[in-house]
Design a protein that fits this description.
The structure is a homodimer. Chain A is α/β, with parallel strands linked by helices. In chain A, about 35% of the residues lie in helices and about 25% in strands. Chain A has 14 helices and 18 strands. In chain A, the strands form 3 sheets. In chain A, strands 7, 8, 9, 10, 11, 12, 14, 15, 16 and 18 form a 10-stranded mixed sheet that branches. In chain A, strands 3-2-1-4-5-6 form a 6-stranded parallel sheet, with helices on both faces. In chain A, strands 13-17 form a two-stranded antiparallel sheet. In chain A, a hairpin with an 8-residue loop joins strand 9 and strand 10. In chain A, helix 1 crosses helix 12 and helix 5 packs parallel to helix 10. Chain A is elongated, with a radius of gyration of 24 Å. Chain A starts with a strand and ends in a 6-residue tail after the last strand. The model of chain A has no long low-confidence stretch (mean pLDDT about 95). At the A-B interface, helix 2, helix 6, strand 12 and helix 12 of A face helix 2, helix 6, strand 13 and helix 12 of B.
């Protein structure tokens, strides 16, 4: 039986999950591929010994022992970070090895450099595990939806953020309390910035846009707003309007320009994305032929992510044994077809908005606020003013018709400067449901 | 540029959609594959002429002109049915041509014969379009989830049936009225038997089980019950218990035996499958590594199905140009690994049940019914008896704890024979939500 040898750098959560998948599924993979995939070496600086049943696998503290091993066909990088990981990957490529990685931060920052190096050495880069854990969405975009122009990408791409929002929704708990609890339970990291500020979601959106549109995307062009300012009262008002608040990545393909943004969004409660709860992820694509498609599953975790890493290893192993490397281009379009495109500036965005104004309960306030909105061409669709007293002030809540982001910013600046305004206005963009 | 030549047999809804995808996406497919995919011939007995922009494509009434054309690499069969379609496919295979088909009925009945013939000639069979329209789920099972033992397959696999149930749920309309309306609108066929009796769903389940488990499945072993007996009153009671009624395919992999059944099911309202409405489909898989995954989209339709057909054509085209035919086994396991396995007889099933008894409003009836259930080891979890008079009788509605199907059948037989019972008891199986 043909044999493919694999080296694994990084034996943390996902690394040990990946090794476990390779051992537990060894016989199944033989039955499916006719090939034996052998985990020859694991490199990790903190690990002193391997589990007993990892027979035949060597442990080393030195990644170079994998990168320079002429016997190893595929190097799996699972140490994370963007410095050492980048060096290891580029060194492995230079040695003619195929690479599988789950490193979304690295790919969203230095993807083009890595893919260019890989193309020059005719090796493959597998990165299914970098987005959406075990959900086979990279493969679906590259192959299953190959006959589509992707018109839009939307998704809940961060399990920690969605877990926090779900807890806030179900129990009316404050953001900071839920976060503390999530950290205690291990659902959120000690430094949760990447998750709650939308940065992790933006990393994933960069990768998906690159693949879906055949486009060279820069992370800094993506507008990114987190969930730290969402309050339970906004979630309650959202419900009254028929929405759920989700941290969405949204990208729309307008041919000459492309929307790309990450922000808390009011999602109509009947939309599939509104019903994705807890640590689950949902990726919602619209193709010009296939219409709406959603892929749903656990977007992180030891074994689901290991499942995706091993799927990539198998894919590359099949290409090695069938002598068809780069049968599918790594970025789904032929390398010479990938080009930068204009990202729509946020000021040009048009969508409906939710506003929560905090004001003193004085006569004429509502009239002045709506006057300012009118001057900026922002039409009000509905208002809730309930006199729920809150820290001495009254919330006025509005839903607008479609309005322009720049106008909204100008109007809110004026309203926030009013002497009756007691706190900065909360603004949440509303998703228009195109499914109905 | 390399060129792959394709012949299309059948120019109906899906056939014309497929041809449209091939023309509209021609340039995109070149950018993604470096190959030109040319639709050389279309065979159809009813079509007199092709659209003007189909330049270079010949029209013929004789499928043999495609099957015997030495120039054609891939034959697409989209005529449906199980007689002529089977002959055309086997003839094409015998001529060494690869085949792409959306024919679920044919594959669920004669799949093994076709796959064996294809293996003998070393050609490929693409059948992504046979299940779930444009949703890339066959590829996901074969490749993306390759490192998983699939533990269960559940799904809403028929858009017509789901459209009817959704209309009944949203508007309280009677099954037959919704069906008539759906037929008028073209959502249901003149003979809706396959859709509403669950047969189409069973066809799809056979294909998915074969692939997911590496198992030789026979259609006649799948227990199949349709939605024609569901009444709006059951949908209302379901809501009171926190369920939605869906026509589900359910298969669970118990190693030594495999559950395989299609029937109306009460799905907990928080389950993802409960929220799939209208003509959409949802395929919910559980893998031992990846946990729960769901793929959602339009399970039928001209362009979505065309998208899947063309994805298969591209897959095979890549294999031809890279000289790696059968890089992935058609049935996802190596041919010698596929074996029959025992299908669990329905009598052995255990699940919770919903019953609606129609009885005369007489003292002691509830006590007698619960007595009979108790004798058969069926424990009642909750009862609703509201005295809603209905054609002179009163409905008594119950939800049971997990019970055995055979015991339930015996008990209902006794209860149906009671002199106070005015109509056959309605029985709907309840899905246990393993997601929470």
């Amino acid at each position: 039986m043909k044999e493919i040898k694999v080296g694994l750098i990084g034996f943390g959560t996902v690394g040990s999950g990946t090794a476990q998948v390779l051992f537990e599924q060894k016989e199944r993979l033989k039955k499916r591929t006719g090939t034996s995939i052998v985990l020859k070496k694991i490199a990790d600086i903190c690990t002193k010994s391997l589990p007993d049943h990892f027979t035949g696998t060597e442990l080393t503290a030195d990644a170079a022992e994998i990168i320079n091993d002429p016997d190893i066909d595929i190097v799996i990088e699972l140490i994370g970070g963007t410095t050492l990981a980048k060096k290891f990957i580029l060194d492995a490529i230079a040695n003619g090895k195929h690479v599988v990685t789950a490193n979304k931060a690295l790919l969203s920052l230095h993807g083009m450099e890595i893919f260019t190096a890989a193309a020059a050495k005719n090796v493959e880069i597998g990165f299914e595990a970098s987005v959406g854990g075990g959900i086979p969405l990279i493969k679906s975009l590259k192959e299953g939806l190959v006959a589509n122009k992707i018109l839009s990408i939307m998704g809940i791409m961060n399990g920690t953020g969605n877990y926090i929002l779900t807890q806030m929704t179900d129990h009316g708990t404050d953001f900071h309390d839920v976060l503390k609890d999530a950290q205690k339970k291990g659902y959120a990291e000690a430094d949760p910035t990447y998750d709650v500020e939308g940065i992790d979601t933006a990393h994933k959106l960069v990768i998906l846009m690159t693949m879906a549109y055949g486009m060279d995307v820069r992370l800094e062009d993506i507008s990114c707003e987190g969930i730290t300012r969402i309050e339970p009262i906004d979630i309650q008002f959202a419900e009254e309007f028929g929405y759920r608040i989700k941290l969405l990545a949204i990208s729309r393909n307008h041919d000459d320009h492309v929307e790309a943004r990450v922000h808390p969004t009011m999602v109509p409660e009947k939309h599939m994305l509104a019903n994705i709860n807890g640590a689950y992820n949902g990726f919602y694509f619209t193709g010009d032929m296939v219409d709406n498609i959603m892929l749903y599953g656990q977007g992180a975790g030891k074994m689901p992510t290991g499942s995706a890493v091993v799927a990539d290893v198998v894919d590359i192993a099949r290409n090695i044994t069938h002598n068809c490397i780069n049968r599918v281009p790594s970025l789904s379009y032929m390398a010479d077809q990938i080009a930068p495109r204009r990202i729509t500036p946020m000021e040009e965005l048009r969508c409906p908005y939710y506003f929560r104004f905090s004001t003193l309960d004085k006569p004429g306030v509502l009239s002045r606020i709506s006057g300012i909105l009118g001057q900026h061409d922002i039409s009000i669709e509905s208002v809730i003013q309930k006199g729920r007293e809150r820290k001495g002030t009254v919330p006025i809540v509005m839903r607008t018709y479609e309005a322009n982001e720049a106008s909204v910013c100008h109007a809110l600046k004026e309203i926030n400067a009013m002497e009756t305004t007691t706190a900065e206005t909360v603004k949440i963009r509303i998703l228009v449901d195109d499914e109905e």
